[in-house]
Every structure is written in C-alpha cells, then in structure tokens.
Amino acid sequence: MAAKQKDPVLVVVQLTGGNDYLNTVVPYNNPLYRDNRKAVGIGDNQILRLDKDYGFPSFLAPMKQFWDDGKLAVMHGVGYLDSPRSHFRSMDIWHTCEADKVGTEGWLGRVVREIDPRKENVVTAVSFGPCLFRALAAPGVPVACVAGPLETYGFLPAIQEKAQRQAVLDRFSRMYTPIPGSGVMEYMATTGLDSLKGADILKVAPAKYSSEIKYPDTPIARKLKGIAQVHFADLGTRVFYCDHGSFDTHAGQGPLHANLWTSVSEGLEALMADLRAHDKADNVIILMFSEFGRRVRDNGSGTDHGAAGVTFVIGERVKGGHYGNMPSLEAGKLVQGDLNPNMDFRGIYSTILDKWLHMDPVRIVNGTYDQLAFLN
Predict the structure, then answer these.
(1) What is the mean pLDDT of residues 83-100?
(2) Which end of the chain has the lower number of beta carbons within 10 A, N or C?
(3) In this structure, are residues 98 and 84 in contact, taking their beta carbons and an 8 Å threshold?
C-alpha cells in the first residue's frame, strides 16, 4: 500500500524590528564592509565562511550547519521599491502584499481561506505570540493564537470542573451569538467562538508529545517547541507563525544582535532535530524574514533603519544556496545610505505558494512576480 501523501506545512518566523543583513550574511572580503562597519563589524576570527564571498558570524553556527547540509536557502537583497523605513508600515506591506495602499487582508489569511474555505478545521493556522499577526488576519478566517506555554493555553484553564467550565463557555457563546448584519460584532463573535473551539483542540497536543530533544529555555525556542507539539499531534495545522525580537539595534548592537541570533538559531536547531527524530520533517519548510535591513554605515554603536534585507528558507525539501546577489555597497549605488532592494519579497511568497502549497500565487500576493528555484 502506498504511503499517504503528507500535506505541506509552512512555518513562518518573523524577526521583528529590522534584522541587520550585513552582519548576518557578512561580505567579509568586501573592503567597503570594513569601511562602513568600524564599530559593529564582525571580526575575521568570528566568521564561519560559506564561500569566498560570504560568511555567518560564529553565533549562527546552527545556521551554518543547515547550509553545509544543503538545507538553507539565502535570499539576497530582499525588499520592495521605495521602502518607508517605518516598522509599522513596512511590516504591514510584508503582511498584506500591498505596497501602494493599506491592505485589508493578510496574505496567509488568504492562504488559510483557500486551504479550508468552509472552516472545517479551526486550527488550520496556529500563531504563537502575544497577538494575531496581520499576515494571518482575514475576515471569516479562524486562527488559533497561543500567547503563552501550550500546556496552559485555552479559555478558563483554571476551571477544571467540566460541568462548571461548560456552563461558563455556554454563557459566553450565547452572549456573543452572531446577529445577521451586525458587522464588526458578528466578526468578533465568530472569531471568539472559533477560538473557543481551537483552544479545546490544541490542549491535547502537549499530552501527545514525547521527545528526547532538549530545547533551549528561551522565548523563541518555547514557541518553536509548541509548533513541534501541534505538528506532531496531527491536528491538520498547515500554517504556523511566530516572532522573535526586537532586532531594532540602534545602540549596543554587538551583544544584542548576537544574543538574538543565538536564540533563534539554537531554537531552529532543536526544532529541526525534533522534526527529523520523529520523521516529521519532510513536509515542513521554515520561512524567516524581517521587515527591512539596516543602514550600511554604522552609527558608532549600532545601525539605523535600512531597506534591502535577507530572507531565509530552511527545510529538507529546500535546495540550499545563494539566491540573487547582495546589492552593491558602493556609495553611489545606495539609496539614502541603504542597500537598494533587487529582489521583491513577493517573489519568495509566490514560489512557496506555487511550488510548496500548490496554489495560484497571483491572487494571494496581488500580482505576478519572478519565482526562485529554492524548492526541490
């Protein structure tokens, strides 16, 4: 009997705050890097060389291992035209794929609606973080948002007595029963009731989870472990989302950037080891992005908001390597002192949508963009 085909799963890790591209994928042989990074440059003795042009700082050692295994794709110069260098606006553009106006739907919200148009599974998308990320927000699309440890997630977790808890939940559902034509309240009501269902479904995941992999005791690693728990429980979740930050390194960048990336890379190392140990890795890819890169020249202690950045995709089905080219560091080719984006982020989304999730990317990203070959 043929093995059942596993549905493709997408994990998104948002590096909130504007990750410093040049200190993540270091152009260590380019003298302009040293000229511009007097205060925060990565020393030659701290660089793990990927090839003759680029290297990772030593605190990205797990990422270097993904590279060596051929499971890490590095997308260079990612962004969009006329970057506003505003955290809020730039993140909104990445979340909605609307660069010219304020979008009303998140791109992943559209994805979830396409995967499950009848809302038959309210945990098709699961988010780990303090709020619903804009990328997942779309009218009528349920998303289970886990703000803390999965073991304590749910509505009224302190009420253990089943009949009492059910009575409270019934009262809640009646209070917010959708009224036809009620607009916002109807949306809030259906979202709240879907969340009630999602909480009860997800609470089974920790009990089903057993692993010898030890995750670091960091916020991002705890989120990634929660993703593994839900994925292993086979609840039909297709989209996972979490964040880490802040990467807004205007001052004291050296230790701050290193600590942030140590947490991310070690958490990803544990997640990938967990997925592989449980034969759950072959249908998962991880997309990692930040809303923009940072200025080419440091400010004496850190770096300020920039334009082009770097995006990563990790997974067993990923064809590792460099995609695109790092924009020129020459002063005359910078835009307001920033690297000039030469790869539209929507091309990366389009590749994932077409080649991984097997759906038409045009209506999700609002247009046609050049795709890349980072998926086998």
Answers:
(1) 89
(2) N
(3) no
